[in-house]
């Protein structure tokens, strides 16, 4: 079953947090191995998570902050994905 980018990006936080099962992790990695926009987004999200962990001393970010960041990341990736779709030579 092929995953769309939105589903991958919604679940990537679970993978980064180690909160998904092996089957889900493998499906996400397989998709990202073949999808440049998701690879880019994954790298960005991983860096943001690492930075938050360093700056917050490893404490869990409040749920409201996590939700706002997730929405903003998805929105920026959607905009980037739309730009790439409009101009295939840019990918």
Tell me about this structure.
With 91 residues, this protein is mainly α. It has one domain. The chain is 75% helix and 0% strand. It contains 4 helices and no strands. Helix 1 (5-16) crosses helix 2 and helix 1 (5-16) packs parallel to helix 3. The longest helix has 24 residues, at 63-86. The chain is globular, with a radius of gyration of 14 Å. The protein starts with a helix and ends in a 5-residue tail after the last helix.
- Averaged pLDDT: 75
Structural class: mainly alpha
How helical, in percent, are the residues? over 70%
- Please count the helical segments: 4
Total number of strands: 0
Integer-rounded radius of gyration: 14 Å
Order of helices and strands: HHHH
Question: How many strands, which pairing sense, and closed or not: the largest β-sheet?
Answer: none
CA-CA gap between termini: 24 Å
* Strand composition percent: under 5%
Query: How many structurally independent domains?
Result: 1
Task: Point out poorly predicted stretches.
Answer: none
Q: Given the C-alpha coordinates, what overall shape results?
A: globular
Helices and strands, with pairings:
Layout lengths: L4 H12 L5 H12 L2 H20 L7 H24 L5
Helix pairs in contact: 1-2, 1-3, 3-4
Keywords:
mainly alpha; 91 residues; 0% strand
Summarize the structure.
By secondary structure, the protein is mainly α.
């Amino acid at each position: 079953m092929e995953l769309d980018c939105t589903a991958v990006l919604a679940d990537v936080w679970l993978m980064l947090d180690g909160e998904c099962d092996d089957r889900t992790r493998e499906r996400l990695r397989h998709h990202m191995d073949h999808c440049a926009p998701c690879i880019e987004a994954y790298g960005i999200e991983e860096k943001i998570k690492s930075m938050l962990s360093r700056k917050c001393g490893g404490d869990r970010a409040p749920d409201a902050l996590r939700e706002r960041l997730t929405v903003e990341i998805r929105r920026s990736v959607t905009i980037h994905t739309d730009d790439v779709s409009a101009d295939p030579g840019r990918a």
